[in-house]
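Note on ligand handling. Small-molecule inputs were canonicalized before submission; formal charges were left as drawn, and no protonation-state enumeration was performed. Where a ligand contained multiple stereocentres, the stereochemistry in the source SMILES was retained. For 1,3-dihydroxyacetonephosphate, this procedure yielded the string shown in the input block below.
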Amino acid sequence: MDESKLRDDIVRLSRSLYDRGFSVGSAGNISAAVDDGLLITPTNSCLGFLDPDKISKLDRNGNHVSGAPPSKEIFLHRAFYETRPQTGAVVHLHSTFATALSCLSDTDPQDCIPPITPYVVMRVGTVKMVPYVRPGDPKAGDLIRGLKGSCAAVLLANHGPVVTGRDIFSAIYAAEELEETAKLLVILRRAPTRRLAPDQIQELKTAFGSH
Ligand SMILES: O=C(CO)COP(=O)(O)O
Ligand SMILES: [Zn+2]
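Structure output:
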């Protein structure tokens, strides 16, 4: 794993998210696994203007070893790496439509993003809601551990999405797919909407793997 390329990829992909309005201000944070720990965006940093040399590095025990102070959501990120060994990167955003679903009281907490299109099934899988805790509360880590690795993505109630992937590219593509599907769900709200049928979902899982 080339850490310096990974740092450049984090900067480039974060800027792209920011430029397209998936994040604003200093909201959101991104981490990626490296051989000896993980890289995570610094707390209070803007995803549009990251400096590769200031990205925080933590060792395998979660100790801060270099860069600016890490995101306060480090507990959330580490819980995904701990419970889903296939995780190579974690993306947390306050993207508008996924956050809207996280605030709507009739979003199904066991199935926040119903399977209405193939790509959300292929890239994201089942999304559960995690009860509200304040940003940076270590309890968020306990709540993620409680899912026992069953979800690649969650919505934090009244806060926003957290999405994981094998690597930084797949985590970000999945976060974009989740946001676009959330937008469709908000647009289609109260309109009778066809879901993919269970056999169609199974066909996708067989053809493309499941989350
Ligand atoms: O989105 C955020 C908190 O939930 C941003 O926090 P950080 O700036 O500490 O990464
Ligand atoms: Zn947040």
